Amino acid sequence: DLTDTNIRKVIGLLDSETPITKKQACEMLNISYNVTRLARIIEEYHEKKAYVKRRKSQLRGRPATKEEIGEIATGYLRGDSLQEISKYTYRSLAFVKAIIEKIGIPSRVLEEEDWIHEYLPENCVRSSFNKGEIAWSAKYHRPCIVEAELSVDYQAEQPGYSDVNYENKYSSKAYKIYVLTEVDDDNEHSKRKPGFNAYSLAYDLGSLKHLEEFGVNLESI
């Protein structure tokens, strides 16, 4: 167990008034008894902490670069938590939140609130989408692929579809979408990513095109 939390705990016990033995420290880390390896693990932990502190100090007060904004946007859209993004960008939680709000990234909600439709930032709002476009589902709080517009002509060609004119009924186009449930880095681009089929009105879909100017590769989400 070489997590930062556990290593920090072991270091604290080694430095306490009644310190544990190095053998006990190895047992807590779930490694074989090896004082050289133990010393290296502790040294690397301190070096890492010092590096993080130095990087945060160097970045403090500096505006976000285009690359940083792209990294934050990509991480958030792929499902990384704000804490994770803060950690690997060496930026504060408040800084990360501010970037997400400033550039108009659709927000996610807690799993227990998945039924809530989130409001979309203004620069995400669109009345129509193209087939194959990567968009955002305000209902499922996940990226999705627009597969087809549910036009009257399209429905007439598909078995089992009702003949509904969505623009007349809801004042909005409707789409068949494929919601991406997780990122699978092992999948080749040509393969189907994990997800499920769904349907959505245009006003529940958000465009992500504006994020491409920050270097976000929507195909990688």
% residues in beta strands:
5-15%
How much helix is in the residues?
25-40%
Written as H for each helix and E for each strand, in order along the chain, the element string is HHHHHHEEHHEEE
Give the spatial strand order of the biggest sheet. 4-3-2-1-5
Radius of gyration: 24 Å
Helix/strand/pairing category: alpha+beta
Count of DSSP strands: 5
How far do the termini sit from each other?
30 Å
Inertia-based shape: elongated
Can you tell me about this structure?
By secondary structure, the protein is α+β, with helices and mostly antiparallel strands. The chain is 38% helix and 13% strand. It is built from eight helices and five strands, in the order H-H-H-H-H-H-E-E-H-H-E-E-E. It has a five-stranded antiparallel β-sheet with strand order 4-3-2-1-5. The two termini are 30 Å apart. The relative contact order is 0.11. Mean pLDDT is 88; it is low at 111-115.
Can you lay out the helices and strands and say which pair or pack?
Elements: H1 4-14, H2 22-29, H3 35-59, H4 66-77, H5 82-89, H6 93-102, E1 134-137, E2 142-149, H7 152-157, H8 166-170, E3 174-180, E4 195-201, E5 205-207
Antiparallel strand pairs: 1-2, 1-5, 2-3, 3-4
Helix pairs in contact: 1-2, 5-6
Features:
221 residues; alpha+beta; five-stranded antiparallel beta sheet; 8 helices; 5 strands; 38% helix
Q: What would you say about this model in short?
A:
The chain contains 8 helices and 5 strands. The protein is α+β, with helices and mostly antiparallel strands. The longest helix has 25 residues, at 35-59.
